[in-house]
Amino acid sequence: MHTGTDWFEAVCYDGRGAIARPVCLSLKRLEPTAIDPRDELHYMLATSLFLEIFDSTRSRRIDSWDVADIFSVPGARGELRLGMSGRPAGARLVVSDPEAARRMRERLPVLAMHRRRKRWRAARNIFVLSLALFALIAAYIYGVPLIAGRIVKFVPPETEIRLGDTIAAQMQRALAENGGLVACDTNPDSLANRAMGRFARQALALSDSPFPVSIQMVRNTIPNAFALPGGRAFYFSALLEQTRSPDEFAGVMAHEIGHVVHRHGMRKLISNAGTGLLVGVVLGDVTGLSVGAVLGTVLINSGFSRDAEREADQYAIAVARQLGFDPAALADLLDRISRDDSDAVKFALLSSHPLNAERRAMLEAGGRAMGEMSRPPVFSDAEWQAIGHMCGQGARVGPEKSKRKGKNAR
């Protein structure tokens, strides 16, 4: 081994202030003679290398930096900036002369190794983060919907009811341009409200749902109907205007009650609204605007899954069998709305409850299975007249009766 000494003019920053101090650097190396420099790892381990920092007169040593702990820092073109582990974050040695910087890099191959390792670590971190992001997205798209049905079982009914009230308030504001959710008839003892209340209770009797369902007719120009988590259901006046029979009305509401019974709305929110809703549910805070502001949009602008629609249809068929109306009337109403080419249909019942061949076949099969049984109509003529006129001149209450045969007025 042999000893060599080189001198380099530089500027030193001690990291404690902004004062630049002229210094001279002495690069000392004890090199192994029996190891090939191309064997970088063994060469580096067998080499003792350090920087001694002297004042500008080279008469007094100020500091000594172990080269093993030195790293390069990005700087101006041609210059060399060095930092050192264990020194203040701003401690720097700056060699501004390009030729001196080049010679020092040649004498410090460890800097190139550090750069390669840094690039490798950066590439590895990017790869790991990309995998983590992919896994997170996959979990959000596929995992959360799969476990939403299990999570919803742990949501207390009272929490879901409060959440439904929060969403109703948000939707009142979101739908204000089209009329909001203002009730057409605020008298709970009116013939129409009593008839709808009786229907809700009879439909709910087929389940063990912890939620009391309330059906409210609201004045709105969008032909829609939906049920919120917790049991509040709304039938829009624009949809009532296109409803031609008690069976169509009963089919829509039985379907929406099916969503309440199976808690599809809560499942949808857990799947789509993300961690904010989950945290709110866990903490019992589901009334804040940070959570509530997006929930109504999630429900009204995105439909349920095919499985959810199938479950709600199956529940509607069971209610129809119990109360004696034709479940296929629901498909007829959806067909009629689909032929509407106005902008309102984009937000209508059909957009969130799309009718496909499978759904129609199941609803029609449910009607055929009921045969020609003779039961009282689901609503009497007087009740259907009252419901049809809740918002003024509305549903076509006269010309079209129920498709079921053998029914007598109540």
Q: Could you characterize what this model shows?
A:
- The chain is of the alpha+beta class and 410 residues long.
- It has two domains: 3-107, PH-domain like; 155-388, no CATH class.
- It is built from 15 helices and ten strands.
- The chain has helices spanning 40-45, 98-107, 109-151, 157-174, 191-204, 237-242, 246-261, 264-273, 275-283, 289-301, 306-323, 328-338, 349-352, 357-369, 381-388, and strands at residues 3-14, 21-30, 48-55, 61-66, 70-73, 80-84, 91-95, 214-218, 225-227, 232-236.
- The strands form two sheets. Strands 4-3-2-1-7-6-5 form a seven-stranded antiparallel β-sheet.
- The longest helix has 43 residues, at 109-151.
- The termini are far apart.
- 35% of the residues are buried.
- The model is unreliable at 279-294, 343-348, 398-402 and 404-410 (pLDDT under 50).
Brief summary:
With 410 residues, the chain is α+β, with helices and mostly antiparallel strands. The protein contains 15 helices and ten strands.
